[in-house]
Amino acid sequence: MQLRARLFGIGVAALAGIPLAVLGPAGASHAATKAAQPAQKTAHSCATSKPGFASCKAIVRTDIVQANKVSPNATPSGYGPSSLQSAYNLPSATAGAGRTVAIVDAYDDPTAEADLGVYRAQFGLPACTTANGCFSKVSQTGGTTYPKKDGGWAQEISLDLDMVSAICPNCHILLVEAKTSSFANLGAAVNQAAKTPGVVAISNSYGGSDASDASYGSYYNHPGIAVTASSGDNGYGASYPASSHYVTAVGGTTLNTASNTRGWTETAWSGAGSGCSAYNTALSGAASFGTGCAKRAEADVSAVANPSTGVAVYDSTAYQGYVGWMVFGGTSVSSPVIASVFALAGNTGSIDNNYPYTHASSLNDVTSGSNGSCTTSQWCNARAGWDGPTGLGTPNGVGAF
């Protein structure tokens, strides 16, 4: 009966696809104090990581879960492809053909392809299947002997595949499943993705504590491929691999419709990760933006991540008792969004991760909102130009990518 209540106890706003107001996760770390937040109705898909391992950054709204089929003439709650494409002014209908976005996650999602099919059919996107050559799934060694199933990471996988579909429906999708969530295995999966023909971007919606590129950087150093990583969901505190010199670190925003020229407004999400790496070299392009970090600063760019203004995702694994259409947030949303924008742009062969810093005018600058209170204001507070939670801003077309 509890599961039945979760599946069918949905309000009118949920059935209409209107995100309900629930703040993201609280959290604090050194040099920052998180603002007090109301009680939440969210859950993290993955447990906190231990040293040498990463945790996925998906956050599910536990108050909005819909059955496998929504009622007639209704759409799933949360933002779908048309909303995301509108918010970021993207050429999704015409760009991306012939390019592959790779998703790297840990463990196996045995229903990944089937769930992806439900999402794409719901929103009228072209089918992306193994049979038609659009979708492929491999282990970290490139084979088809997959790791053991994990329900939390399966939710992450569904989220990632759906976001690539929403932003770049013409792209092919490669899912690489690491044996475990250790940096060594996830890194091996990134290397497998990078050597796959056609891959132009690799999204990593996971993170652990700040670490050194001397230990793990070789996994993420792939010139000619855009490698993105989630900045984290707990406010200030550097997270690896987002703190790597070799990736584009992706922060998070709260995205709302508005009666302005753009049609949307964004503020920094209170949970968006930001920080200064203790180990890794700063990006040269960041030098003129006053990050205040002696070494690598994160984030670089951002996209929607607040579960309160989250995205529609379909997952059938029934993890934690939730199954069907759900609303997700976390910087697990923003990383595959940005990887897919790089794929739409089609420039990755000739640029590096400094490129947004030299094309910041092609981004929506996010100037309000905060993820806490830091000793250096811009590490936690949005402002004109660069700031920790949102980086340089969010996509306004593909000019910065």
UniProtKB/TrEMBL annotation:
Signal sequence extent: 1-31
Record domain Peptidase S53: where: 78-401
Keywords: Signal
Gene3D superfamilies assigned: Peptidase S8/S53 domain
Keyword Cell inner membrane: no
UniProt KW Signal keyword: yes
PROSITE patterns: SEDOLISIN (PS51695)
Highest taxon listed in the record's lineage: Bacteria
Name of the protein this chain belongs to: S53 family peptidase
Taxonomy of the source species: Bacteria, Bacillati, Actinomycetota, Actinomycetes, Kitasatosporales
